[in-house]
Amino acid sequence: MDVIPSIDVLQGNAVRLTRGDFMLVTKYGEPEEVLDRLEVEDGARLHVVDLEASRSGRPVETEIVRKLARRNLRLQVGGGVRSLRDARTWLDAGAERIVVGTAAAESPRFLERLVDAFGADRIIPAVDVRDGVVRVDGWQRAASESLASILARLDNVNEVLVTDVNKDGAMRGPSFALYRQLRAMTGVRIIASGGVSTLGDIVSLARLGNISGCVIGKALLDKKLTLADATARVRTPSAIPERVIPCLDVRDGRVVKGVSFANLRDSGDPVECAMRYEAEGADELVILDVSATDEGRRTALETVRGVADSIFIPLTVGGGVKSVGDFRALLRAGADRVAINTAAIANPQLIAECAREFGVQAVVLSVDAARASGERRAASGFEAIVRSGKHPTGIDVVEWCKRAEMLGAGEILLTSIERDGTSDGFDIELLRAVSGSVRIGVIASGGAGTLEHFRDAIEAGGARAVLAASLFHTRRLSIGEVKEFLAAEGIPVR
Amino acid sequence: MEVTLIDSPVANVANIARALRHAGAGLRVTRDAETIANAGKIVLPGVGSFIAAMTWLREQRIDEALKRAVSRGAALLGVCVGHQLLFDASHEMGLTSGLGFLRGEVQRLVGPLPVPQIGWNALTVGRSPLFEGIADRTPFYFVNSYAALEAPDEIARADYGGAFTAAVQCGTIFGVQFHPEKSSAAGLRLLRNFVQWT
Questions:
Q1: Of the candidates A314, A360, A441, which has its C-beta nearest B182's C-beta?
Q2: Which of A169, A174, A243 minimizes the C-alpha distance to A206?
Q3: How much is the CA Rg of chain B, to the nearest whole Å?
Q4: Does the model's pTM come out above 0.90?
Q5: Which of A155, A213, A467, B126 could disulfide-pair with A245, CB 3.0 to 4.6 Å?
């Protein structure tokens, strides 16, 4: 899959329109300066849109394209191609390919003539989609044909550019559902465009299998991503399995959350549960001690010992860890990693102390997050909650996670308080906000209810692991079913 | 089969001891150099920093004991940092000499992925008694910031932003960069292969 940086040109400037509105213009400077800033490699693909041309219906910024073409770039240029002559103008100016919008959806004969005149590999039909319907004329009206029938006759080209209009420039992630739908509709390879804003998005698009390129505009211009990172990630072999993690909430030595006591095999014994989960294919186990008393916490150490003695997968333990001493006690009891939450909020240096003492790999920051409401302002829209007492801290979740990464957290266990226990799905927006801002892995927690929820947390949320408790305890889904489903969706699992 | 597990303070010895017992080993856990020098089958664990692990081996004269054991034909399995110690040297915090049983140097993982690597990673497996019954592309559990790259004695490799050596064998000396004791059934199988190897 090619990573294709994109610049829209208007009156000699690289610009962005928000949702296609010519009134909502952000200027980024001259196109050549912008390319230098983005560090576009020699020989790379570059997507250029002449916005004035798309409005007026004839090529305008040919001089800019000519300049860019001198840079040894593989240019694909779009905007206002309504005739063979327009197409030739762009190709003569140095474009390797031309992107044809409205005509692709509305004028099959014109498209055929373009392909005949210049060759299938030089024409990229572009289809804009909103809510499953193809939009034409600057998204102003719906095309007369359905998406499926338009795609059906676009089988004579190598690639089709498909933009989800709702996602464009919004940086809320590409429309994975749309691209998955296209995979079933056509064998033609798709250039995805719109909403790509994290490295995780790029990995997830590549996994879909039918995507030959992804166009990235705003995220590069706004430095949410660097082209070097994006390109490197695509070139990196990514067979690293994503993890499925059952969580045991333990109080006074018993599993307390969502255990089905009707089924006698579910005795609520943590050791039994842990062994069953390893046998089912769990990649790791999390134990959260929710005991309220000191005695309960001493019992928890016994529980950790018992579980660690019985399984041969990594064990992460959290709950009530207040000091380096607590941390050490859990490692000694057999935990591989320890999650800290409330104590780290009170004293962030605890993260650094534990990382120094036991290594970054041992330190998991557990964050309980909720949507900030009312007067409390968190730039990301999410604030950390200290669960005991459900006390909102006013701390921005994204800023907190970035700081924890700097201090030495090796991974983040991110729980949506609002979704926890609901089966409504993981909070994808929360996951994206954090996973797009840190390099360390994020474990998605809270809200798992269906197989698709697990996929979405990884694919759209950018999570590197997915966690659930009662869903597995009650056997509504098994770990094996989740992993099989993820594998079928192109997500590598163990 | 009797296995001598080196009781390193810079390793989670309890976990690997448990896994070795599960894999059928009669286990002797020791830091006595003479015992190690005379052992027939030895496991060298390790986590944390290369230099701390190597310093401890030298202080305890276990480095010499291991050389004597190996020259007598003892089988040795290094795990994680224990695996790294088998090589000539490591670039962790400057250049530090290792045991020198295997050619190659240990380098920091580079590339676009976060370091340390924490998690499962699939191996490309070559022929070795250590991987008997373990399919190609089987994932094992890794926790590492450093690894040997393209070691001459490589028997398995993995990719983490670039290829690195996941396991080695040179005669009776074996090393695995991953944690078999945390790699579920595949890890236990690998340990059993070592325990039963003759």
A1: A314
A2: A174
A3: 15
A4: yes
A5: A467
Contact A359 B47 (CB under 8 A): yes
Angstrom distance (rounded) from CA B59 to CA A46: 59
Alpha-carbon gap, residue A407 to A25, rounded angstroms:
39
Please give chain B's pLDDT, 198 residues, in tens: 899 999 988 767 889 999 999 999 999 999 999 999 999 999 999 877 899 999 999 999 999 999 999 999 999 999 999 999 999 999 998 899 999 999 999 999 988 888 889 899 999 999 999 999 999 999 999 999 999 999 999 999 999 988 999 999 999 999 999 999 999 999 999 999 999 998
B150 is a catalytic site residue: no
Number of domains chain A is built from = 2
Q: Which residues 296-325 in chain A show a CB within 8 A of chain B?
A: 308-309, 312-314
For B101-137, give one letter per residue: b (16+ CB within 10 A) or e: bbebbbeebebbbbbbbbbbbbbebeebebbeebeee
- Chain A: give the shortest CA distance to residue B158, in Å: 10
Minimal C-alpha gap between B134 and chain A (Å): 14
Query: Are the beta carbons of A199 and A233 closer than 8 angstroms?
Result: yes
Q: Judge if A179 and A272 occupy the same domain.
A: no
Q: Which of A236, A334, A361 is facing B113, going by the closest CB pair?
A: A236
Residue A133 CB contacts under 8 Å (≥ 6 apart), including other chains: A142, A143, A146, A147
With beta carbons less than 8 A apart as the criterion, state whether A364 and A416 touch.
Answer: no
Burial zone of A262 (CB within 10 Å; 0-12 exposed, 13-18 middle, 19+ buried): exposed
Beta carbons of B118 and A411 less than 8 Å apart: yes
CB atoms within 10 A of CB B89: 18
Residues of A in contact with B137 (CB under 8 A): 239
Among candidate residues A389, A390, A399, the one with its CA nearest the CA of residue A365: A399
Q: In chain B, which residue's Cα lies nearest the Cα of A282?
A: B184
Chain B residue closest in CA terms to A200: B113
Residue A39 lies in a domain: yes
AA identity, residue A445: S
Q: Which residue of B has its CA nearest to A411?
A: B118
Q: Which domain holds residue A407?
A: 243-488
Annotation marks residue B80 as catalytic: yes
Contacts for A323 with CB less than 8 Å, ≥ 6 apart: A343, A350
Give the burial string for A192-201 (b: 16+ CB within 10 Å, else e).
bbbbbbbbbb
Q: What is the bridge-based pairing of β-strands B2-6 and A465-468?
A: unpaired
Does residue B197 belong to the interface with chain A, where contact is any CB pair within 8 Å? no
Peptide bond connecting B116 to the previous residue in cis, omega within 30 degrees of 0: yes
| 8-state DSSP, B129 | G
Q: Which domains does chain B have, with CATH numbers?
A: 2-196 (3.40.50.880)
Helix (H, G, I), strand (E, B) or coil at A11: coil
Integer Cα distance of B115 and B108 in angstroms: 9
Q: What ipTM score was computed for the predicted complex, to two decimals?
A: 0.94
Burial class for A263, CB neighbours closer than 10 Å (0-12, 13-18, 19+)? exposed
Say how many CB pairs under 8 Å bridge A and B. 77
One domain, residues A277 and A423: yes
A128 catalytic residue (yes or no): no
